[in-house]
Design a protein that fits this description.
The protein is of the alpha/beta class. Helices cover 48% and strands 22% of the residues. Helix 8 links the parallel strand 6 and strand 7. The chain is globular. It binds guanosine-5'-monophosphate (2 copies), sodium ion and manganese (II) ion. The site of manganese (II) ion has 4 residues, from loops. This is PAS domain S-box-containing protein/diguanylate cyclase (GGDEF)-like protein.
């Protein structure tokens, strides 16, 4: 209840913040992009995870406004970061199921790109399988319009739901993000993961592994020709200032 009361004022009171987790090329170990992750700094409850407030925001109709803020903030930050450091990092933004069902999403993405000057090919939208199956026909149409705008599309959390390969054929996705529960930390499942990576490559997709915490897991993924990786081994999600420090150190 306290969350609900605070949610509709959180935007105007500037209580939201984005943190950024680097995404690394597993071949060269260079940073290729960043994932924008939302945080709510609640005045009494402290920092609240999106897992707690995104579902509530969707239910109460706040997700459109919050999603718009995230898109603009992520594009603006990436554009400035790239300009300041002479980089061409991709920024990945998470899109919720409710956002994907609204055709306003396409216009908002275009507005965020125009407002920030970020090249469309440097914006990647992360969509979960569960969001896609809520209304497949509508999702498909919106994804095709986003594709036409030049934006990259990633299927997020792959390995947690049905993980149907048919979605990879039906929807115009460029990137498959393997969920960290799928990767595991002991290397045991990596034969299966390797086969999945090969299949994704055959379909023309690039593969990103999430939740890499150990060098052993990183090496297995490198052997499996996984394209990129994200995880605590490289960096946690970082506030902008810390990200800039990390980039300076990683260069
Ligand atoms: O950042 P992690 O620390 O806790 O994120 C938890 C979950 O919240 C993840 O599933 C992530 O995809 C989701 N999430 C993070 N930021 C956003 C956001 O800006 N919008 C939406 N819809 N989900 C987000
Ligand atoms: O659902 P999505 O993949 O968008 O969410 C990413 C989530 O994974 C965020 O909550 C982020 O903080 C978390 N995360 C990122 N890297 C790691 C990691 O190496 N280990 C664990 N346990 N969580 C991670
Ligand atoms: Na995500
Ligand atoms: Mn993700």
């Amino acid at each position: 209840l306290q969350l609900e009361a605070g949610l509709h004022r959180a935007l105007e009171q500037r209580q939201f913040e984005l943190v950024f987790q680097p995404r690394v090329d597993l071949g060269t170990l260079r940073v290729r992009g960043i994932e924008a992750l939302l945080r709510w700094n609640h005045p009494e409850l402290g920092r609240i995870s999106p897992l707690e407030f995104i579902p509530l925001a969707e239910e109460r109709g706040h997700i459109e406004a919050i999603g718009r803020w995230v898109l603009h903030e992520a594009c603006r930050t990436a554009s400035q970061l790239n300009a300041r450091h002479g980089l061409a990092l991709t920024v990945s933004v998470n899109v919720s199921a409710r956002q994907l069902r609204s055709s306003a999403l396409v216009d908002e993405v275009l507005a965020a790109l125009a407002g920030s000057g970020l090249s469309p090919r440097l914006l990647e939208l992360e969509i979960t399988e569960s969001a896609l199956i809520e209304d497949m026909a509508q999702s498909e149409q919106i994804l095709h319009r986003l594709k036409a705008a030049g934006v990259r599309l990633a299927l997020d959390d792959f390995g947690t739901g049905y993980s149907s390969l048919s979605y990879l054929k039906r929807f115009p996705v460029d990137v498959l993000k393997l969920d960290r529960s799928f990767i595991g930390q002991d290397g045991a499942d990596l034969q299966f993961v390797g086969a999945l990576i090969a299949m994704a490559h055959a379909l023309g997709l690039s593969v990103v592994a999430e939740g890499i915490e150990t060098p052993a897991v990183m090496r297995s993924l490198q052997r499996g020709a996984c394209d990129e990786g994200q995880g605590y081994l490289f960096a946690r999600p970082l506030p902008l200032g810390d990200l800039e420090g990390y980039l300076a150190g990683a260069a």
